[in-house]
Amino acid sequence: MANDDIFDQVEGLFEAYLEQNGHRKTPERFAILKQVYSHEGHFDVDTLYEVMGKGEYRVSRATLYNTLDLLLDCNLVRRHQFGDQSAQYEKCHRVKQHDHVILADTGEVLEFCDPRIQQIKATLEEIFDIEVMHHSLNIYARKRATTPAQHES
């Protein structure tokens, strides 16, 4: 599915959400949505603010936070808190389920997908007679120190 098709879908979902919940449909909100869905990977509010400041719609941080709250509420954006870093966001409509490795020394976030996690979820559902709605797995790590012997290999 093309990115334009995905954006058309999320734009329609967001518009319907705003209408159903009595929120105004402002051009700034849709510009923020477009920027979020054109971004690859994670971002924080400061990064989004900087990018929006260079575009057609300059918005305040308050508008960004308010719009991100609306996007969170209608499940178009996911929020992460990786350690002491500021909150990170990512688009989540039609995005493959993935988990994260956070490098503690640099703050870099690596994404991975392992089918064994789905097996664990299925096992938990069976054992506890539950339905897993969603999950979040964050693994904190650091790069291994390179020893002189590793350089010789």
* Apparent shape: globular
CATH top level of the largest domain is: Mainly Alpha
Biggest sheet strand order reads 4-3-5
Largest sheet: 3 strands, mixed
Portion of residues in beta strands equals 5-15%
User: How many H/I helical runs?
Assistant: 6
DSSP summary, beta strand count = 5
- How many structural domains are formed by the residues? 2
Unreliable segments (pLDDT under 50, ≥5 consecutive)?
none
Structural class: alpha+beta
Percentage of residues in helical conformation: 40-55%
Distance between the termini: 44 Å
Verbal overview:
This protein is of the alpha+beta class and 153 residues long. The chain folds into 2 domains: 1-95, Winged helix-like DNA-binding domain superfamily/Winged helix DNA-binding domain (Arc Repressor Mutant, subunit A); 96-153, Ferric-uptake regulator, C-terminal dimerisarion domain (Dna Ligase, domain 1, 2-Layer Sandwich), CATH 3.30.1490. Helices cover 46% and strands 14% of the residues. The protein is built from 6 helices and 5 strands. It has helices at 3-20, 27-38, 45-53, 61-73, 115-128, 148-152; strands at 77-80, 88-91, 99-103, 109-112, 138-141. The strands form 2 sheets. The chain has a 3-stranded mixed sheet, with no helix packed on it. Strands 1-2 form a two-stranded antiparallel sheet. Helix 1 (3-20) runs antiparallel to helix 2 and helix 2 packs across helix 4. The protein starts with a helix and ends with a helix. The mean pLDDT is 87.
